[in-house]
Fold:
Amino acid sequence: MKNYKIAVLKGDGIGPEIVDEAIKVLNVTAEKCGFTVEYDEALLGGCAIDATGVPLPDETVAKCKAADSTLLGAVGGPKWDTLPGSQRPEKGLLGIRAALGLFANLRPARIFEPLREASPLRADIIGGSLDIMVVRELTGGIYFGERGRLEENGVQAAYDTEKYSVPEIERIARIGFDLAMKRNKRLCSVDKANVLESSRLWRETVTRIGREYPEVELSYMYVDNCAMQLVRNPSQFDVLLTSNIFGDILSDEASMISGSIGMLASASLGATGSGLYEPIHGSAPDIAGQNIANPLATILSVAMMLKYSLGQPEASDMIEKAVADVLNEVRTPDIYVEGFQKVSCTEMGDAVCAKIKAM
Ligand code: IPM
Ligand code: MG
Structure:
């Protein structure tokens, strides 16, 4: 029987609660599909700072590298908000992305039919179907560029640098075009080429790589216009190709169209294919420990892991189908509307497991 080793980084806030539900679902799915999973927990973020003094201990990197894939909850919280930038929990998240070379972040935003009413967008604006894949560059740009503080004429100043090299743009563009080929063959590259030099290089490079994909319809959009188009006519998009920071912002926006940020999964991939999987939402310290968080984004992240890293597409489909089914019956508070049963985080996990068992 095939056995997979998964590194588990539960993190902070609601991280442990949602990851526990995702593991429950993965175990049930494994049993159903005839494979086994072994888990190896490691520390990342605030919990790592508390236990070891640093947000990303070396041991965590080693465990992730040794695993077939990594599952992550969320990091951060008010307890660590006053620490200097280099020691914050978020630094651990950026560090693990960099250490594992995870340059491509896939963030699918789509609407589950039963959640149409939960979307803040009117049904006529959402249109017939909504299925966007945000392909976000994850280990470059302003997140990793040179930054610092200085004093100019007695005035405090600070700066962060947006820098991209041609190879960095080429490899993320190829991921975007390859995905577009498997989808609806449309790719919109997002930039701010009317202002930023880094965006002009981004656009030139994407255009050149695009010639290798004559079947993909390539378009370009300035990031401000894209933010507007996402709420004006979201179904025009198939693949959105973005830099690190533009993808961070636009993926949060796109997630809301689908009803709740609690629904959106993500995959971070590098050259090796083992990947790291996490919900796109944060650690939600305000609701941590109350058993009311929505575990579906993490559960859907496990579905992405099965598809992109573990070579178990049927198991992945099972989970996605189970999630779509439970939404007709039960809802966590973030997606609750009258007429459904309001459930806790653990009850939502149980409901997904029950659907899979019944398949
Ligand atoms: C995300 C998060 C992170 C990011 C933060 C927590 C560093 O917002 O995964 O989108 O900006 O990448
Ligand atoms: Mg973000």
User: Anything to note?
Assistant: The two ends are 21 Å apart (CA to CA). The chain is about 40% helix and 20% strand. Residues 120-257 form a domain with the Isopropylmalate Dehydrogenase fold (CATH 3.40.718.10). The pocket of 3-isopropylmalic acid (ligand 1) is lined by residues 90, 93-94, 248, 280 (CB under 6 Å).
